[in-house]
C-alpha cells in the first residue's frame, strides 16, 4: 500500500523502520499522547494482516528542519511520522490506533489524516473510522474536529500511565458522513 499526498508518500513500514518508529513514539513531543510499543510488538504488527504500520515520508522537498536539534537524531529528515491502523474486516472498522508527526504545526498531521480517511472510505470497505485521544492533546482534538469527526464520548480513566489514570475521548466518522 502506498498513498500519495501533496507532499508525502505514505507506505507500509518494514522491520528496518521499527527503531525509528520507537524513537518517534518516545520523543518528548509525542510520548504523552501515543502508547509506546516494544520492538517485538511492532514487528508483530508488520506481520499481521489486520494491521497497517505506516511511515510518512516527505517526497517533495526537504525543509530546514534539523532532526538532531529536535531530539530525533536517528530519524532521516524526510520522515514526517507514522501511523498504526487496525482493520476489523468483519465489522468494517478502520481504527487509527496511533499517529505521530515529527514536525508539528506544518500541516503534515492534517495531510496524513486526510489521506487515511480518504483511503479508508474509498479503497476499503470501511463503514466506521475511529480513534481515541487524551483530553490534553489539544492539537489532535482540534484537528479531528476540523476534519468533521464526531465526538462519540469519553472513556473515563480508561488508561493508566506514568501520568496517572487518563480519560480517552473517542472520535469517529461513518461512511455516510464522509464527504470526500
List keywords for this structure.
single chain; 180 residues; alpha+beta; Aminopeptidase; eight-stranded mixed beta sheet; 4 helices; globular
Can you describe this structure?
The protein has one domain (2-129): Gcn5-related N-acetyltransferase (GNAT) (Aminopeptidase, 3-Layer(aba) Sandwich), CATH 3.40.630.30. The protein has helices spanning 18-26, 39-47, 108-123, 138-146; strands at residues 2-4, 8-12, 51-58, 79-88, 93-101, 128-133, 150-161, 164-174. 24% of the residues lie in helices and 36% in strands. Strands 1-2-3-4-5-6-8-7 form an eight-stranded mixed beta sheet. The protein is built from four helices and eight strands; from the N terminus they run ββααβββαβαββ. The longest helix is centred in the middle third of the chain and has 16 residues, at 108-123. The protein has 180 residues and is α+β, with helices and mostly antiparallel strands.
Tell me briefly what this model is.
This protein is α+β, with helices and mostly antiparallel strands. 24% of the residues lie in helices and 36% in strands.
Amino acid at each position: 500500500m502506498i498513498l500519495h499526498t501533496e507532499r508525502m508518500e505514505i507506505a507500509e513500514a518494514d522491520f528496518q523502520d521499527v527503531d525509528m518508529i520507537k524513537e518517534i513514539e518516545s520523543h518528548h513531543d509525542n510520548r504523552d499522547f501515543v502508547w509506546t510499543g516494544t520492538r517485538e510488538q511492532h514487528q508483530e504488527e508488520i506481520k499481521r494482516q489486520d494491521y497497517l504500520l505506516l511511515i510518512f515520508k516527505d517526497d517533495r522537498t526537504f525543509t530546514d528542519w534539523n532532526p538532531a536539534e529536535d531530539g530525533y537524531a536517528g530519524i532521516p529528515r524526510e520522515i514526517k511520522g507514522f501511523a498504526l491502523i487496525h482493520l476489523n474486516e468483519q465489522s468494517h472498522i478502520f481504527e487509527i490506533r496511533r499517529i505521530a508527526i515529527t514536525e508539528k504545526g506544518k500541516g503534515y498531521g492534517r495531510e496524513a489524516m486526510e489521506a487515511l480517511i480518504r483511503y479508508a472510505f474509498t479503497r476499503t470497505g470501511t463503514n466506521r473510522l475511529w480513534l481515541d485521544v487524551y483530553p490534553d492533546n489539544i492539537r489532535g482534538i482540534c484537528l479531528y474536529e476540523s476534519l468533521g469527526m464526531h465526538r462519540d464520548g469519553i472513556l473515563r480513566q480508561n488508561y493508566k500511565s506514568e501520568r496517572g489514570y487518563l480519560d480517552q475521548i473517542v472520535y469517529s466518522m461513518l461512511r455516510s458522513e464522509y464527504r470526500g
